[in-house]
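Why does residue order matter? Because the sequence determines the fold. Keep that principle in mind as you read this record.
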Amino acid sequence: MNSYHTIGINGGHEKKLLDVDLDFQKLAECPVCLGTVDISPTQCKNGHVVCNICGNNLKLCPMCGDEFTLANHTLTNQLLDSLPKLCPNTNQGCTVISLTKGHEQYCEFRQTECKFIDCIWEGSVKDVFNHFVRAHRESLPKSYLSHTLKSYYVNFSKTIDFYDFSPIVFKNIVFWKVCYRNSTTKCIIHKFYYFPTRKPTHEYYFIVSFNGGGMEFTSTSIAVTDASGDVDVLGNGEAGVLIPDSALDKILNGKKQLPFSIKMVEIEMDLEIFKH
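Structure:
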């Protein structure tokens, strides 16, 4: 695993360093999409560069109208490779200059949104917990007071596909829990994910149990991280349990509520493994 080095901007010298880096970033700006060009950009005979994506759609240089060259410009590539990288979340308040890639994956200023229905809040991941406490405290399960959460799914149906998106707060960390059931396969799937504000040092496991009528169905999944917040890309960290309808009838109560419990387990990661 590659480590990354960062420089925080908190003084006069650091501010000058940021200004210099901004000047370099401007020189390495693609004139078409205004993004920073990558290593081995498309370059014309006069030395103007555009990013490869834009270069694929151009026949002539947008700066001078000259043709592009296929030559490998070693010096240009070396300069681009050694250029300190501004965090993509600079406009949101991040003041980190990364000397290598990796910071943005756990940047506390990366943007996310609230998944509560009718809530339009968007902001930095570092502010998610405060938003929940301020705007949705009454809707939060009291899981931050215990390692075990007991609740129930409402309006659960055997014949209609079920989908539920809800938060869990554990040790001041907000986890999004996604549960869905396919009425054909009769399998209940759980996914858990969260947004760390630094490289994780612990793993989080969620043990979900349904029980009633002398039966118990349990599944275990690990919470995964995802910078984009797009639950559709979370292929791993998925656990499911098959509950036949005959057993489901015994677990469901008269109000079409499906009781469940979730036990949260925190395990410290062995970071020494990643140093070898």
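The radius of gyration is 25 Å.
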